[in-house]
Amino acid sequence: MAETTNKHLEGELAYPEHKFQILLEEKTLADLYTFDFIPAAENEEKLPVAAFSFFKAGLNESVSSAKKTLIGVGKLEELDLEQWADVLSSTAGKIVKNFKEVKLNIPAIIFRRFKAGQVANLLATAFGNAGYPSELLKSKDPAEKIILQKLFVSVPAAKRLEFQTQLEKFLVIARHINAMRQTQVLPGNFLTPTTMEKRALQVGNQYPVKVTVFDERQLKEMGAGGILAVARGSEEEPRMLVLDYNPAGAKSTIALVGKGVTFDTGGISIKPSAEMHEMKYDMSGSGAALHAIAAIADLKLPVRAIGIVGMVENMPDGKAFKPGDVYRALNGLTIEVQNTDAEGRLVLGDLLTYAEKEYSPDLIINLATLTGACVVALGNYYAGLFSPSQKVIESVQKAAEQSLEPVWALPMGRVYREALKSEIADHNNIGGRYGGSSIAASFLSLFLKKPEKWAHLDIAGVGMLNKSYGVYPAHASGYGIRLLVQIAENLGAEKK
Ligand code: BES
Ligand code: MG
Ligand code: ZN
Q: What residues make up the domain containing 28?
């Protein structure tokens, strides 16, 4: 067998570990605090390690001397969180591959502009992402390129305590973001429904999370017709995976439900080939749900959190479901499938029914790379947020602001459901060309008795990116973990 240094090639799903520590500095170097101008180099020989700081110059412009690099943040009055996230991410990218030990100075002026928690969030997320490679399947392990061991961060004394607490939290979260990115980036021949099962069991081994696996036979017994219809055309068996984190004393329950199409060819309604390879990311919702449960358990949040993911591969085949076929969903509704590429909603429908019936959660959040229409509407910058409840919309919006993961509310409801009429069954799975994301969201609501306790996040645009944006790296973005942790944290804080 050919030699390799990369364990992923052997099929092992290694939980990502950061190789570096972030340590808060007690002492700071006076010249590095100077923000307005490029400080003289006279103190440089006193610098024990390479040092980075920020100053007033064009965004991401940098000035380097032997031991020190200054990176511009543009006009401070105009600096927004996204730009600051961009600057931190490119700085992190330079640092992790080139230095073993680095001093990073965050000037007081940055803390006057942003909250300490926001700075800590973006710093931990940027360094966390940069410290873990996404090119997992190179024959030589790309993790070896990352050499950073210690990052010393100096922050103003008054902000140190808050910064430290938030930094610790977001470094834990960063690990799970990277686990999600690993799950996302693995292609369809590595990440199948059964390897996702292994991943779930691994989460169950590492954290106090009970994992239950439903295989094809059990899904048949249960009557999960939506999941089974999509799975028909694939050699890969489907799975529904349930992760239950139930800490003593938990007073509320949240369910995180994820679409896990490990590869979406479109089925018989096959997609054009040019960009089809991107459909390995069609499991991003399941990655977010599964790894957010791990993060919530890791952080020991005082809330019961259930992850429910439906794993299938959507393939065309002699046995595949066909346009016009009718199936019966878990909640008994009959669905005419006029387009086999609108498969995510069939899977999610059953998952939502199961989540509500089995756990009666206080809140259900589902995540799915559901519609191309959502990418048309919002680009790669916001997840589409849908709920019939204004209260739920506002609580997700609040968590999005706190966690710095962007969402944008879009409409759903009766007018869109009208489009889903079928002549021969209860509903059609598609409803015309316009308002596709809202139609899809409205379809999902058919599978809940209490849709007012639910929100749907369409992450088709934010789950996979062509280029990096803010702290999100290109391709496997890891979108959703910070948001879901924040939603769970807020729910836990509501009832105490
Ligand atoms: N997985 C796709 C949605 C998607 C498209 C995600 C682009 C990410 C980027 C989904 O299964 C799909 O194919 N949806 C169809 C629905 C249509 C047939 C009603 C779509 O968006 O075209
Ligand atoms: Mg599809
Ligand atoms: Zn899909």
A: 7-167
